[in-house]
Design goal:
This protein is mainly α. It is about 70% helix and about 0% strand. It has a domain of about 110 residues. The protein has a two-stranded antiparallel sheet. Helix 2 runs parallel beside helix 12, helix 4 crosses helix 8 and helix 7 packs antiparallel against helix 8.
């Protein structure tokens, strides 16, 4: 039990990230998102622009980092085939069910990506995360199987140095920048007709999954000091404030055109992602390691909430489509009702659906 309690803060962090994801998707109907969403209001709240920029720059990568950490832990506990079987059931079955649901919806309701009533490619929507996580997990299992021996468990905990984090951020920015020459942000492709990929984000998400694997093996999460966490969190806050100030105020005074802005942004994004992830991990470890009844219920429902949050959001957005309110007020209202409604639905369906 003591071993499990050490990671309660990761459960709470995943719950917080899921709530942020819900808010992010709510905002796609009311702010300058740049992405696709079934409901689009004419009026837009400019203040939501920085929210999209800040959110997309770190929260899915933090999901991947936590997932990599837990994947390594799960493989050590279960071994090869039981781990693979568990991943196929937990990730593969929801993907299959969602795909079977989306085929008639694409034909008769939404239309396929790019327009038209087509059943192919299958639009898995936000469940792209499950696709990528399943692929990464199976690749890790294959690597462990080919390696043929258990990793060392006697490695002394040692947190990465600040200079190594900065060096990683620079390398990540360079790779991401090269990829985005051909695949800009928000350009999605469907490999094999069902594997949804935004190549612009793959270097960041994949590298953070690998970082999660390494973090578990080298016990980085327990080795990072509270002081280092505060420094990284402060750095992330400063970087977030800078991008928000530029987006809302400074752009009109000092506009930066392409490709200069793309270069500045990719370095900002990589550094912000590293700082935010490190800072939030330590913050939740130090301040949010509790696991009372409510926290336990939310943690158990988090996975189902991730899967089912989109239809809940769309239902509320459709319900107030004709209501005359400013776009930011609609964003706040739909977010406030969607988060508890999503987790309530998740609590009801997670047991019968084995989620």
């Amino acid at each position: 039990m003591a071993e499990r309690e050490r990671f309660y803060y990761l459960d709470n962090l995943k719950v917080g990230l899921t709530m942020l994801l819900i808010a992010h998707h709510v905002g796609q109907a009311y702010g300058p998102t740049g992405g696709e969403w079934p409901i689009q209001e004419t009026a837009r709240a400019a203040a939501l622009g920085p929210l999209f920029t800040i959110d997309r720059s770190f929260f899915m990568s933090l999901f991947f980092l936590i997932s990599g950490f837990l994947v390594a832990r799960s493989y050590d506990a279960k071994g090869g085939w039981p781990f693979v079987k568990g991943r196929l059931l937990r990730l593969g079955l929801p993907l299959l069910a969602w795909a079977l649901l989306m085929i008639p919806l694409q034909i008769f309701v939404f239309g396929a990506p790019g327009g038209g009533a087509k059943a192919w490619p299958i639009d898995v929507g936000h469940l792209w995360f499950l696709e990528h996580l399943l692929l990464f997990s199976l690749a890790y299992a294959l690597w462990r199987g080919l390696r043929g021996r258990r990793p060392r468990t006697d490695i002394a905990p040692r947190a990465p140095r600040a200079w190594s984090v900065l060096l990683f951020a620079v390398a990540l920015a360079l790779v991401s920048g090269l990829v985005r020459i051909a695949y800009p942000i928000d350009r999605w492709v469907y490999l094999l007709g069902f594997f949804r990929v935004a190549f612009a984000d793959v270097p960041r998400d994949l590298s953070f999954f690998v970082l999660g694997l390494v973090a578990y093996r080298r016990r980085w999460l327990s080795a990072m000091t509270a002081r280092a966490g505060r420094v990284w969190l402060a750095a992330a806050a400063i970087l977030a404030a800078l991008i928000a100030a530029y987006d809302l105020v400074l752009y009109d005074l000092f506009p930066i055109g392409e490709p200069a802005w793309g270069t500045v942004y990719v370095f900002w994004e990589s550094l912000f992602c590293c700082a935010a992830c490190a800072g939030l991990l330590v913050l939740f470890r130090e301040k949010a390691a509790m696991h009372g009844r409510l926290a336990a219920a939310l943690a158990k429902s988090q996975y189902a909430a991730y899967i089912f949050h989109v239809p809940v959001i769309l239902a509320f957005q459709y319900a107030i489509l004709s209501v005359s309110l400013p776009p930011f007020a609609k964003f706040a209202l739909v977010t406030a009702v969607s988060i508890p409604a999503t987790f309530a639905l998740a609590w009801l369906v997670r047991r019968p659906l084995h989620l």
